[in-house]
Design brief:
alpha+beta, 7 strands, 4 helices
Length: about 160
């Protein structure tokens, strides 16, 4: 099994069918891009780093899809899928899934708390070079954004409530 991070838009959590912006996973291409070595040989802290990179990519993809939103919130769902059900995507770490994912497949959710909204808006403005951005691109790294909150899969209703949906 392989952990896949599914980038979602907040409003997707109200839908009956799971729709994803994109999905990311630790792939050999991601390992090559970040000079982590062979995927088959990753373990311990190196594997944790690779997982963190794939997770952060999914969070960024969720955010970028909300570039026109006044209140963006990153939402990532974690799922475990068979390695055979993963196909490489056009970017290192980005993957396509051969099988549909259902809400029952989700292990946990990661979501921004409401207080993160201004930092996310500022981050998007910096990326877009929008006038009025409070910081410059040198001031920001994705890791500088607030950490995402973790919710068990059974807490989907709490996530929906937190997002104000």
């Amino acid at each position: 099994m392989s952990r896949v991070y599914v980038a979602l838009l907040p409003e997707y959590l109200r839908c009956d069918v799971l729709d994803a912006v994109a999905a990311t996973a630790v792939t050999q291409e991601l390992c090559d891009e970040w000079a982590l070595g062979k995927l088959s040989e990753l373990y311990g802290e190196d594997l944790e780093l690779a997982e963190a990179i794939a997770f952060e990519q999914a969070a960024l993809l969720s955010l970028l899809e909300q570039h026109n939103s006044d209140c963006p919130r990153r939402v990532v769902a974690s799922v475990d899928v068979s390695v055979e059900d993963i196909r490489g995507g056009e970017l290192p770490g980005k993957v396509a899934l051969k099988q549909a994912i259902t809400w029952d497949d989700i292990i946990c959710y990661h979501v921004d708390e409401p207080e993160a909204q201004q930092a996310l808006v500022d981050y998007l403005q910096v990326l877009e070079g929008t006038q009025g951005a409070k910081t410059t691109s040198q001031d920001y790294e994705l890791g500088a954004l607030p950490p995402l909150l973790w919710f068990d899969a059974q807490e989907k209703d709490e996530v929906v409530s937190l997002l104000g949906l």
